[in-house]
């Protein structure tokens, strides 16, 4: 470890405004690049998780009635404090996730700060919408009259935020900040692999003046901790980012108890590349699967559908690009691709590459573990001569692996893209913009990038099919963490 600030501290749980010793002791959090211990995370008991939810319930009444300006001020102050400690927060995020320093600084910590600032403003957005008056005839419901109506967004209540390991700043911030802005209270359950950054977020909120019980953080390596955070009687809503399999189990619990849900689940993004596309732009977008979080991102364009006329050219360009990527120490300034999150996940990704070989795919580049003594590294891997029925083309690998599938015409491209259980983000590259938008409208995905992998951070985000339930980002997140109430009166 290069910075003693990362330290080997034993963290405490944050419950009802107090830092509490965990009932289950602590477990080590590892640096995926070095396999060294970064720190020790607390192992909460089920009773402590329930206590956190009860604290959030107790705090909800007063917090939900605070003036929006007060909530906005707290969120803004928290953003200031996260930014003040940006260097230390970046070092910690890099150490516990294995992200490169540039990614930890710019895409993790900085995005977390930006989301708190966005929802400080969001707290001030109107929650009332006037509806067109309705003229009612006299009848069993009363006398004739003109009736006005107002749709009002109210906070849901206590929200459990279960966050993903690939971004321990942006992902929790995207849940906690809009939930608090709307007047909800929260129980945050970070991913077990890298929870330490979330405690720094909680410290910033505490210093910013968030009232006791409004924010609670519980952690644990055992599934029972997450299960308790979902089934706690005081929880009204669960916001989850992670795998579809876990999301389904959470949804079953929520369904039994009528808890609200926001689910951002897996993806197998199709990138359709037509023969008139700017191949440089397409390649630049697709290879982010190799370089961005080492492919550990649900929005990655991992399934490349390329028209036969440019198939070989695209494969050659992708292979050439992959060959230039430096794999190694994420703290080194020239590193592009760091490790994946754990040894178990590295083994899982490698098993998919071997499965691809057995299924008949050609390993164009990668496929072998990088020659590094320590760390959970996977080489950027390109699989060509794939078909859409192969498991490597259908299942989310969540690593630096891209599969390439040829197609002949537009109809086949659309059919292949839609032949998936997932539907989070797809992409279309074509020099014919009209065709690109025509194809995009026919894709069964929550979002489509047209000649770009860029995002508009006010656009709704979420998935079709097994990629999720609900939408967030921008003002849509405020809607996601609210309930609609109708107020009706005679005019």
Automatic annotation (TrEMBL):
Keywords: Oxidoreductase
Gene assigned in the entry: gbsA_2
The family this protein is said to belong to: Belongs to the aldehyde dehydrogenase family.
The keyword Oxidoreductase is annotated on this UniProt entry: yes
Name of the molecule in the record: Betaine aldehyde dehydrogenase
GO terms for MF: betaine-aldehyde dehydrogenase (NAD+) activity
PANTHER family according to UniProt: ALDEHYDE DEHYDROGENASE-RELATED (PTHR11699)
Domain (Aldehyde dehydrogenase) ranges: 19-486
Family matches, as InterPro entries: Ald_DH/histidinol_DH, Ald_DH_C, Ald_DH_N, Aldehyde_DH_dom
Enzyme Commission number(s) of this protein: 1.2.1.8
């Amino acid at each position: 470890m290069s910075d003693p600030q990362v330290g080997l501290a034993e963290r405490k749980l944050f419950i009802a405004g107090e830092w509490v010793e965990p009932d289950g002791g602590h477990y080590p959090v590892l640096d995926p690049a070095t396999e060294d211990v970064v720190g020790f995370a607390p192992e909460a008991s089920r009773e402590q998780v329930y206590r956190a939810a009860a604290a959030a319930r107790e705090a909800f009444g007063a917090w939900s009635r605070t003036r929006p300006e007060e909530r906005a001020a707290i969120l803004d102050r928290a953003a200031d404090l996260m930014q003040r400690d940006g260097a230390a927060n970046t070092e910690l995020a890099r150490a516990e996730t294995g992200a490169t320093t540039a990614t930890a600084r710019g895409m993790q910590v900085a995005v977390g700060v930006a989301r708190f600032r966005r929802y400080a403003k969001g707290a001030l957005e109107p929650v009332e919408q006037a509806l067109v008056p309705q003229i009612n005839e006299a009848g069993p419901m009363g006398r004739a009259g003109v009736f006005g109506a107002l749709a009002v967004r109210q906070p849901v209540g206590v929200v459990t935020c279960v966050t993903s390991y690939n971004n321990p700043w942006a992902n929790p911030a995207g849940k906690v900040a809009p939930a608090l802005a709307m007047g909800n209270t929260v129980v945050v359950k970070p991913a077990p692999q890298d929870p330490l950054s979330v405690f720094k977020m909680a410290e910033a909120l505490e210093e910013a003046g968030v009232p006791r019980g409004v924010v609670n953080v519980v952690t644990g390596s055992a599934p029972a901790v997450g299960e308790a955070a979902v089934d706690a009687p005081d929880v009204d809503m669960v916001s989850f980012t992670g795998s579809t399999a876990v999301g389904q189990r959470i949804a079953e619990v929520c369904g039994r108890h009528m808890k609200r849900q926001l689910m951002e689940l897996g993806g197998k993004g199709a990138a359709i590349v037509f023969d008139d596309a700017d191949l440089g732009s397409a390649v630049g977008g697709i290879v982010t699967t190799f370089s961005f979080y080492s492919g550990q991102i649900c929005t990655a364009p991992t399934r490349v559908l390329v028209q036969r006329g440019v198939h070989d050219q695209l494969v050659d360009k992708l292979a050439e690009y992959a060959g230039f990527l430096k794999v190694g120490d994420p703290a080194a300034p020239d590193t592009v691709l760091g490790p994946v999150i754990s040894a178990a996940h590295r083994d899982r990704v490698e098993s998919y590459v071997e499965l691809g070989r057995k299924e008949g795919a050609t390993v164009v580049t990668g496929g072998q573990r990088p020659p590094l003594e320590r760390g959970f590294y996977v080489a950027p891997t390109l699989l060509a001569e794939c078909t859409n029925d192969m498991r490597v083309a259908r299942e989310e690998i969540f690593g630096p692996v891209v599969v390439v599938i040829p197609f002949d015409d537009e109809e086949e491209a659309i059919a292949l893209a839609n032949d998936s259980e997932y539907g989070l983000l797809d992409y279309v590259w074509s020099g014919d913009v009209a065709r690109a938008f025509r194809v995009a409208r026919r894709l069964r995905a929550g979002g489509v990038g047209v000649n770009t992998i860029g995002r508009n951070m006010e656009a709704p985000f979420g998935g079709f099919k097994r990629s999720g339930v609900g939408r967030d980002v921008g003002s849509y997140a405020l809607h996601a963490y609210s309930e609609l109430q109708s107020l009706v009166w005679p005019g």
